[in-house]
Design brief:
alpha/beta; Rossmann fold; single chain; globular; binds NADP nicotinamide-adenine-dinucleotide phosphate
C-alpha cells in the first residue's frame, strides 16, 4: 500500500502508539486524520508533526455512535485510503475485581468500536483503487493470560474479525492487516503491569519501534504481524499445544495474582 499522498485515519492518536504512528506516517508522506478523546493530548501530537500533514482532528469517544459517525464523515470527506484502529484500553485485574461497567467499557472500545468504524467506512474503502484496514490487536489476542481475561476476549475477537473480514474482502482491493504488539512502554500499562512484566521477564518495546513495524507492514501489504520473537513462538505453541502453555502460565500464576490483587485498587480503567 502506498502511503505517500494517501489519507490515513489513526484512532487513539493521542496515546503512546498512536502518537508514534502519526509521526512515522507523516515521515512516509501520508496525510492524516487524527482521532482521540483528549483535545489537549491530541493537540500536542499535532504540534509535533510537520505543518500541513494533518488534514483534520476529531475529538470524541469512539464507543459513541455520533462521535464515530463524525469521524467516518471526515474520513470520507478526505478520501481516506487507510483506517488504522489503534484506540483501546485495559484494566489489569482478576475477573471478580471487574465491575459490569468495566466489562462493557472494555469490550466496547477494544472490539465493538473498531468493528463499527470499519463497517461505517467499508463502502467508501471498497470504491477506492486500493485501501487498507489496520487493526492493532495484541499478543494477548492469541495467548490467554491471567489477569487479562476481558482484554484477551476483546483482542482475540479483534483478531478473528480481522481474519474473517480479510477473507471476506479477498475479491476486492481492500486489504486487512492485523498487528499484535507485545508489551509496549505507554501509559496504558499501570505500575502494577510494568512491575509484573519485569518480575516475569516479559520484554517491552518502545512505541516508536511498534509504529515503524506497522508502517513497514502497511507498505508491504502484510496481513498478520506479531511483534517479538518469543511472542510469535508462544502464539503458535498455544494454538498447537495449549496444554504446554497452560502449565507454563500456571507456574507464573502466583506472581500474576500478587500484582493483580495488591494493586487492584489503583488500577485505572484507561
Ligand atoms: N501498551 C501496550 O503494552 C500494548 C500492547 C499491545 C497492544 N496494545 C494496543 O495498542 C493500542 C494503543 O495502546 P497504547 O499503549 O498506545 O495506549 P494509550 O497510550 O493508553 O492510548 C490509548 C488511546 O486510545 C484512545 N481511547 C481510549 N478509549 C477511547 C474511546 N472510548 N474513544 C476514543 N478513543 C479512546 C485514547 O484516547 P485519549 O488519550 O484521548 O483518551 C488514546 O489515544 C491499544 O489498542 C492497545 O490495546 C498496547
Amino acid at each position: 500500500m502506498q502511503l505517500e499522498g494517501s489519507t490515513v485515519v489513526v484512532t487513539g492518536a493521542s496515546g503512546g502508539i498512536g502518537r508514534a504512528l502519526a509521526g512515522e506516517l507523516a515521515s512516509a508522506g501520508a496525510r492524516l486524520i487524527l482521532a482521540g478523546r483528549d483535545a489537549g493530548r491530541l493537540g500536542a501530537v499535532v504540534d509535533e508533526l510537520p505543518d500541513g500533514c494533518v488534514r483534520e482532528t476529531c475529538i470524541g469517544d469512539l464507543t459513541d455512535v455520533a462521535d464515530r459517525d463524525r469521524l467516518a464523515a471526515a474520513a470520507r470527506r478526505h478520501d481516506c485510503a487507510v483506517l488504522v484502529n489503534v484506540c483501546g484500553g485495559n484494566r489489569f485485574g482478576l475477573l471478580d475485581h471487574q465491575s459490569d461497567a468495566d466489562v462493557d467499557a472494555l469490550l466496547a472500545v477494544n472490539l465493538a468500536a473498531p468493528i463499527q468504524l470499519t463497517r461505517a467506512l467499508l463502502d467508501h474503502l471498497r470504491r477506492r483503487p486500493s485501501a487498507m484496514v489496520v487493526n492493532v490487536g495484541s499478543a494477548y489476542g492469541a495467548i490467554g493470560f491471567p489477569g487479562y481475561a476481558i482484554y484477551c476476549a476483546s483482542k482475540f475477537g479483534l483478531r478473528g474479525f480481522s481474519e474473517a473480514l480479510g477473507r471476506e474482502l479477498a475479491d476486492t482491493a481492500v486489504r486487512v492487516l492485523h498487528v499484535a504488539p507485545r508489551a509496549t512502554r505507554t501509559s496504558m500499562n499501570s505500575d502494577a503491569v510494568n512491575a509484573m512484566n519485569q518480575a516475569l521477564g516479559n520484554a517491552a518495546d518502545d512505541p516508536e519501534q511498534v509504529a515503524r513495524r506497522i508502517v513497514a507492514a502497511i507498505r508491504a501489504d502484510e496481513r498478520r504481524v506479531v511483534i517479538g520473537w518469543p511472542e510469535r513462538f508462544f502464539a503458535r505453541l498455544n494454538q498447537a499445544l495449549p496444554g504446554v502453555v497452560d502449565r507454563a502460565l500456571g507456574q507464573q500464576l502466583r506472581t500474576v495474582k500478587r500484582f493483580a490483587t495488591t494493586h487492584a485498587q489503583e488500577e485505572p480503567l484507561s
